[in-house]
Design goal:
Chain lengths: ~325, ~375
Amino acid sequence: MSIVPAATPPLLQVSDLSLHYQTRQGEARAVDGVSFALQPNEAMVVLGESGCGKSSLARALLRLLPRNVAHYSGAVHFEGRDLMPLGEEDFRATVRWQRMSMVMQAAMNALNPVVRVREQVAEPLRIHSKWSREKALARVGETFGLVGLAPDVLDRYPFELSGGMRQRVVLAMALVTAPPLVILDEPTSALDVLTQAAIMNVLKRIKREQDISFILITHDVATSSEIADRVALMYAGQIVECSPARDFFHAPRHPYAQLLMASVPRLRQPEAPGAIPGTPPSLLALPAGCRFADRCPQRFARCDQPPPTFHVDGSTVRCWRFAPEGAP
Amino acid sequence: MKNTPRPISKATAIRQNLSRFLPFALLRLLGLFVTVVIGVYLTILIANMGGKVDELRLLQIRTTVGEQVRADPAFFDMPVAERDDIIESRVTLEVKRRRLDQPFVARSIDYLLAAVRLDLGRSEEMHSDSGAREVSAIILERLPATLLLFGTANLAVFFSAIFFALRLSRRYGSWMDRAVIALAPTSAAPAWFFGIFLILVFAFLTPILPAGGMVHVPPPEGRVAWGLSVAQHMVLPLAAMFFSSIFISIYSWRTFFLIHSSEDYVEMARAKGLPGRLIEQRYVLRPALSPIITSFALMLIGLWSGAIILEQVFNWPGLGSLLFRAIGHRDTPMIIGSVVIFAYLLAITVFLLDILYAILDPRVRIQGGRS
């Protein structure tokens, strides 16, 4: 059962993915029953406040699990293959960076300080594709051009680069093996606005020119709107709404999405942007019913029950207000 | 530096590096030399108790000379006054010879100049097994024994600690990791303490190993038999040193590696799907190489002083027991001599480490010259 009906088979189909961490205070349900599908050459933005589990979702997809995992389950079908039964070594050797790469949140420190940039970027090609040094370095040069880096950066060490340059290097590293899927975890959150815009432009260009899918994880509504084909909004470990970008930015359905969009300041907007009262629930002690109910202005009796995901006009919404008529 | 895409040839780069490096190296050497001089002078002051030892020396000279003269049959028939004159003149001669009539400060400078020139002088009370009184000869005679025993022990501890620590840092929280943490406090007891127990158990209760010394008495004929005998004598002190420091070493290196393997770039390497061994070598060990090398170098020169009590316990003829005896005899030249050599070794090591850092770590090499 595909969530978004589509002619082409989805590149990535995630069903009921969960990742819980063991902490001293109990189990933190960072990713709790997340399902979505991603089409080839599609850019999906995962929006959410910090702590809602969006980075954990990225880690769960690339199986970069910390030591304190309490629970990791669900199904991940990628390029027609079920990834979950793969052994650790198989996953490392066949999926990581060859088929799915990632730009980490802390891109500033994501580079080894004592290895030249070109060696680090060439590494996946040398290891996974067993390319010769010359061939790999030629490809690295190409990728540097793609992300807008001058060739002389190749010979530099990471500490000789500015933040924006480092971010581009990390991006080049994610693109160097030309994987069908790149996960970007807050790729621009540590950068100034101009550099952010430049990086987003690079992403847009790459998406236009290449057959590549992005999952862009961010809390920044404004930047995400530039590149998104579809938006998944996360709240307290769940995706509460997943809609085509146009729908999401202009007519969001979930009450949380509506409030979120109302809180984004717009140019020439007469009234002050709204705020959402309250704080998200702790991932350690989630409410039994709808997780947004406590902050929701449209709350009604059914919200004490956990809402399932409803399909509405090409979107999915996890809210009782979208329950079809006559459903139990 | 952002706007210099102009390519620099390798030769130019090396020349630039060298021209930056040479003034730095000279300044560093000068600074280290000053440190050595200060350290040695302090040692001279302390070993002479700020000149107080001179009073003891004067007394000693007077007693020795007096006894010599009185015991000499040639002076038996002399009147007491005449004999006292002879004693007095000999004492004066000896005081002049050892320049005790000059103020201590002046002499201390002379000592310092000699020490810095590595002219270690003659021991006052001790001599080597071959009878030489030169401090350098006595030290050189003891050096191989210390190097053999402590070199073996420290190298074994260092490399096995790093090896196991890397393993443990990957399996942090496992039962092995917990066991090492639990055993780490055993290192609170010094090696000689373990030594006493080992001697008790393996030399007396079940006499399978020698209790002390370096070879059997009389030494066995032939190189092989001699080597075997030395090896046999080394087992217990080696075991004592190994067990007294292995757990704490593993523990501290493991913590060190844990910190280094939680860096973002290690996580990134894992995400890139690099094999574990490569991550360990290129992403954990290599960025952490400078502190590892530092610790290794300091360990190596730490061999110089040996271990005073352990060598006593095992009756090992090394530098530690030499220093112990020198302190007991208040043999100032001996004490100063061994400190001077240690000071020079330390300074040279620090200097070499500075160069090594630059070779190993591009952050030092490239940024060092700019600041």
